[in-house]
Amino acid sequence: GVYVRRAAQARCPEQFADFYCCSLKPRHRVIAAGGMPPLEFEWERKRTAQRERFGTYGLKSGVDPAICWPTVEEIEEEQAVGLYREYDLCVREMNALKQKKEAKEAARIAELEKNLQKYPEMLAKYEASQVKAEKERDEKEIALENRIREIQEYFGYWMDPKDPRFEVMLQQKEQEEKKAAKLAKKAEQQKKRIADVV
């Protein structure tokens, strides 16, 4: 592809130039040569195209420079729409916006500095509230956690408290504890009787 074309161009540059030049339309050949194309199409006679032609080729285009300026009606329409504004007005508005933005940023920085000064106190309060919340944890919850841990240690393996078998094991452990408590109570009563007899 590319290498064959380059090799052909190197062998006979004149023929190659003719080939490329001939593949262009006459209008485009004039433009490629740096010339000014003739007016062929209707759109080229419109005011916008004439302005563009004058901008590209200058006075040699034959276009009247007066059409490059807006008419009185166009100026009045632009003023009514407010599309274009005076430079001084734009500068004033930009300065006002800039000052407003700077004031907002300064207020934000002042707020940050004020909060930074309060930070150690707020942090101490937060940590104290966390400690208090930890202390105020429900005693039942702590007792339940201890109970779960005891049962898991008693049976020798971990079991999820939501498992139905856990409830059975809990009841079994409670019965065993009741039996142990009864036996301990009986032993205590026997010791008292023996002590009373002696």
UniProtKB/TrEMBL annotation:
Residue ranges of coiled coil: 109-193
Gene3D superfamilies: Growth arrest and DNA-damage-inducible proteins-interacting protein 1
Chief place where the protein resides: mitochondrion
Cell compartment(s), UniProt: Mitochondrion; Nucleus
Keyword annotations of the record: Cell cycle, Coiled coil, Mitochondrion, Nucleus, Ribonucleoprotein, Ribosomal protein
Stored Pfam families: CR6_interact (PF10147)
GO cellular component, one term: mitochondrion
Domain of life: Eukaryota
Record-linked InterPro entries: Ribosomal_mL64, Ribosomal_mL64_sf
Family: Belongs to the mitochondrion-specific ribosomal protein mL64 family.
Purpose: Acts as a negative regulator of G1 to S cell cycle phase progression by inhibiting cyclin-dependent kinases. Inhibitory effects are additive with GADD45 proteins but also occur in the absence of GADD45 proteins. Acts as a repressor of the orphan nuclear receptor NR4A1 by inhibiting AB domain-mediated transcriptional activity. May be involved in the hormone-mediated regulation of NR4A1 transcriptional activity. May play a role in mitochondrial protein synthesis.
Protein name (Swiss-Prot/TrEMBL): Large ribosomal subunit protein mL64
